[in-house]
Amino acid sequence: MTSPSAQHQFAMVAGEASGDLLASLLLDGLQARWPDMRSVGIGGPRMLAHGFESWWPQEKLAVRGYIEVLRHYAEIAGIRRQLKARLLKEFPPLFIGVDAPDFNLDLEAGLRSRGMKTVHFVCPSIWAWRADRADKIRAAADHVLCIFPFEPALLEKLGIAASYVGHPIANVVPMVPDRAAARTALGIASDVPVVALLPGSRRSELRYLASRFFAAAALMQRSRPEIQFIAPAIPALRAEVEQMLKASPMAGKVQLLDGQSHLALAACDATLIASGTATLEAALFKRPMVIAYNMHSLSWRLMQRQQLQPWVGLPNILCGEFVVPELLQDAASPEALAEATLSWLASPDKVAALEQRFATMHEELRRDTPTLCADAIQKVLES
Prior knowledge:
- Its EC number is 2.4.1.182.
- Pathway: Bacterial outer membrane biogenesis; LPS lipid A biosynthesis.
- The protein contains 18 helices and 13 strands.
- The protein is α/β, with parallel strands linked by helices.
- The chain has a seven-stranded parallel sheet, sandwiched between helices. A six-stranded parallel sheet has the order 10-9-8-11-12-13, sandwiched between helices.
- The protein is globular.
- The two termini are 15 Å apart.
């Protein structure tokens, strides 16, 4: 079997918690194909558990929104320059950019122009917004690994080589999540309504959403005192979440978890959740949700100009309609968030229909992603 190099080395960058999960599943396939491989670059805790060598903390790149990125631009650009120089010096046979297109595509283009082969894992959402990225992707990537079935044909029309590898998270989440086991693990009774609060995995998301979510939870609890609230927080940001919670009306009334977002989604009856990859995870757990987002007003205006379709949440994009509510920017008031979440708890028939819709989606996204990724990467290496 072909090895990637004498050093068996891959370079990778995954810029946030969702990318860390995607990259860890990719590493499963690469390590099965090349057991003595070395992986280096920038990654998170799941990648580190695979023996990945992270040269910078992943949290340095976990910034979202135009204004927020501008505030950290100098540091992020400096990391990219230093990383590019180190990679060109070590010159691994392949660089894999995992999501984080604003960081990775420019890096990939620079490395590819110097002769390094590059793969981008997760097609940037040019079908949703930022259609102008097509030229950048074409210059940056020898191959794109796509997680949605309609993407390869779209990219091929644009002259970009691509493969559908399924959505790796679809194989991680069971088709029938064990709610009873999740509640037992969290010490939650089986007969109480549970709402999971997921205000995001980035500091900038927490800044704009966490307080709104806690205020919405207070309104929900006022209406239905029996509701129990759980909130997973990534370890690096737990202290900040704790501070926001203490300053809210829900101080001492929310069970904070160390990460464990999948456990929270398995245990809950509904979730109030930030727009992003986590919404797809919630759909795979067959959970009703209310998708929310709020950001700097200038960032919001700029993003609206780029939007090509009416949906923001991945479950709605994949279904082609608003199967779950989206409350964005000024619409994401605590009152509206609470009302929409409580509506799910009061609508069992509607929830059952949504669960069936999400089960069909789950089946469509299940593939042997690690093996398909390794197959595509081997072809790039041998080309």
